[in-house]
Write a structure and sequence with these properties.
D-Maltodextrin-Binding Protein, domain 2; six-stranded mixed beta sheet
Length: 321
């Protein structure tokens, strides 16, 4: 009896367990970092997914806009964050893939420092011009650019973004001189176009479609390889420049050392959000195609995108202006 009583205090001593075992993930709010200002296309996708993911996770997902450097500021911030699942990135083609070749002084390495969770959406961009630009087709626009080299300029949402890539690919393939003017996001670039500060841009269908329909800007063509179901009347740039294709995408990533069970949980809730009928309807109606692939598939896709755009960066001698 005495021996049993002697063991009792030992049984009451709390046993130290790893932090992950002491509480079930997630135990607090999660921060989803977006590399562009509120109201832009990346922000729109993030704010469509965040509430649905919050429902499944039982914790709030807070969208945190950290604009600048074409998404690199946000990407670096998440790459260097604690790998605990409480800081994730709504990454873009620019900050995640293109920066690897365009910005040698970036503070991170995508393949080393980030863990892909899932590709959220694929998005078509649209070549649009200010109404004052006389061209109505890609052929007419290129003829105008050749007749007046350097007289046209195009706005982008930042260096290395899909809007920048789309513009440089057109210049490279068509051998025309059109000046690049980078902004700090899609919304500022759109404002510049509507006001006539720039002549054209390659804006994301998520935010440009209403302005095309209202007549504030002219839709010329889509940047994807196939015509868009949202605006089927618009031709592809490839119909004039065979082989042209420049489509954007967004996807969720976490710091590289994040535990696999946490990645799996985030992936499951992200895919569930992307499959929700109301989210599918809202995104599709604005030209975004929900994806929701596996972490392994998204990793392979990111690798292929890094390689693809590195070829253009080198061939076109692109620089971070």
């Amino acid at each position: 009896m005495k021996r049993k009583l002697a063991l009792l205090p030992l049984l009451l001593i709390p046993i130290a367990l790893p932090a992950a075992a002491q509480q079930q993930y997630p135990a607090r709010a999660i921060r989803m970092v977006v590399g562009f200002p509120a109201g832009g296309p990346t922000d729109i996708v993030a704010r469509q997914m965040a509430p649905k993911m919050s429902e499944g996770l039982g914790q709030q997902i807070i969208v945190d806009n950290r604009g600048g450097a074409g998404g690199m500021i946000a990407t670096e911030q998440v790459a260097k964050a604690a790998p605990d699942g409480y800081t994730i990135l709504m990454g873009t083609i620019g900050g995640v893939a293109v920066a690897m070749s365009l910005n040698p002084n970036r503070g991170y390495d995508t393949l080393r420092d980030l863990a892909p969770i899932t590709q959220s959406v694929a998005v078509t961009s649209i070549l649009v011009t200010h109404p004052s630009v006389p061209a109505k087709t890609v052929k007419e626009l290129l003829a105008y650019a050749r007749a007046k080299p350097g007289s046209l300029n195009y706005g982008s949402s930042g260096n290395g973004t899909i809007t920048h890539l789309a513009g440089e690919l057109l210049k490279y393939m068509a051998k025309v001189n059109i000046t690049h003017v980078p902004y700090k996001g899609g919304s500022p670039a759109l404002t510049a176009l509507v006001s006539g500060e720039v002549d054209l841009t390659y804006e994301n269908s998520l935010i440009i479609t209403p302005h095309i329909k209202s007549g504030k800007v002219k839709g010329i063509a889509v940047t994807s390889a196939k015509r868009s179901a949202l605006l089927p009347e618009l031709p592809t740039i490839a119909e004039t420049l065979p082989g042209y294709s420049a489509s954007g995408w967004y996807g969720l990533l976490a710091p590289a050392a994040t535990q696999k069970p946490v990645i799996a949980r985030l992936h499951a809730e992200a895919v569930k959000a992307l499959r929700a009928p109301d989210v599918v309807e809202r995104l599709s109606s604005q030209g975004a195609e929900p994806v929701g692939n596996t972490p392994e598939e998204f990793t392979a896709f990111v690798r292929s995108e890094i390689s693809k755009w590195a070829t253009l960066v080198k061939a076109a001698n692109m620089r971070a202006d």
